[in-house]
Amino acid sequence: MTWVTFFQQLMNGVSLGSLYALLAIGYTLVYGILGLINFAHGDVFMLGAYFAFFMIAIFMLPWWLGVIVGIVLCAIVGMTIERVAYRPLRDAPRISALITAVGVSFFIENLGLVTVGARPKGFPRPDLMKNVYILAGARIHGVTLWVPIISLAILAVLLFIVYRTKMGMAMRAVAKDMEATRLMGVNVDRVILLTFALGSALAGAGGVMWACKYPQINPLMGVFPGWKAFTAAVVGGIGNVVGAMIGGFIIGVAEIMIAAFFPSLTGYRDAFVFGILIFFLLIKPSGIMGETLKEKV
Predict the structure, then answer these.
(1) What is the predicted pLDDT for the residue at 160?
(2) How many domains does the chain have?
(3) pLDDT at 296 over 60
(4) In sequence order, which residues have a C-beta less than 8 Å from that of residue 103 and are 6 or more positions away?
(5) Residue 37 placed within a domain
(6) Which of 19, 54, 112, 251 could form a disulfide with 232 if both were Cys (CB 3.0 to 4.6 A apart)?
(7) Span 55-71, mean pLDDT?
(8) Using CA atoms, how far apart are residues 275 and 281, in angstroms rounded to an integer?
(9) Which domain holds residue 177?
């Protein structure tokens, strides 16, 4: 493999990893606060692509405005899921919340199949992502270049919110000790609601970027990206925002490189990714940057 080919595949891996990072952070935000794996997160990712598609194709909004509206609608969906499905089970056994998360996921997927059908739809890409750029002698498609740039900008905004704002301070406090934070006068329910909104907005943005990179959308498009993003969250240290970002890039680059270096194993790259998950669960279940904490009750 030449340097140019390696660089091109590395860019593909970074592009894919940035999308996994967007999704993984949504998982890790919710888990860090509630100790809950929101299995519907991958389906909110799918909704982001569909919301943007309908805003652009049917309501004829400019591409950028349709995307913003789609992301906002995903945030509203995330808050609705928390308010309707998860909040009533806040004090219920953990298995009840887990079953509910799986049920919400199936509900969204099947609602999508019934309302929009299983036939894939072509997603419109802006001209910016259709160009071809020459970098270090490699031909890089615009979508491969701009997806990680946009994703990294979104992640930078998220890090600013989490570590430099009062809302982010409240989120970190709730994740550390919910009851103590409540006693300090913080509206914990509001913090959790906004956490779901933030995570779902990230999922919606990820869905749009994914649809730009692979311009066909269907109601089940969030299933495998959701599972791989969950793997990324575990690898990086679920509950740790920076760890989730690192895990996303590791999974994305590993998935692309296994196909590039071993073309005969391309059909097994999903198995390779989930093999990484099993490896970390056996060797270092807390992940790269995670801490070994007592289980939330």
Answers:
(1) 94
(2) 1
(3) no
(4) 85
(5) yes
(6) 251
(7) 95
(8) 10
(9) 24-221
100 touches 40 (CB < 8 A): no
- Inside any domain, residue 182: yes
Report yes or no on 18 lying in a domain. no
Question: How many angstroms separate the CA atoms of 193 and 188, rounded?
Answer: 9
Whether 234 contacts 280, CB under 8 Å: yes
Separation between Cα atoms, residue 158 and residue 68, nearest integer Å: 16
| Separation of alpha carbons 104 and 76, rounded Å | 15
DSSP 8-state symbol, 86: I
pLDDT (tens digit, 9 = 90+) per residue, 85-100? 999 988 888 889 889 9
Tokens 């982010």 belong to 168
Helix runs in 117-237, H state only:
142-164, 166-176, 178-183, 188-213, 223-236
CB 105 within 8 A of CB 42: yes
Amino acid at residue number 114: V
Inside any domain, residue 143: yes
The pLDDT assigned to 236 comes to 93
Cα torsion at 34, 239, 225, 59 (round to 10°)?
A: 60
Token code pair at residue 146: 């701009």
Look at residue 297 in the predicted model and tell me its pLDDT.
47
- Our measurement of the distance from residue 296's CA atom to the centroid of its chain's CA atoms, rounded to an integer in Å, reads 23
Tell me phi and psi for residue 262, to 5 degrees: -130, 75
The Cα-based distances of 155 to 23, 79, 152, 161 in angstroms read 11, 20, 5, 10
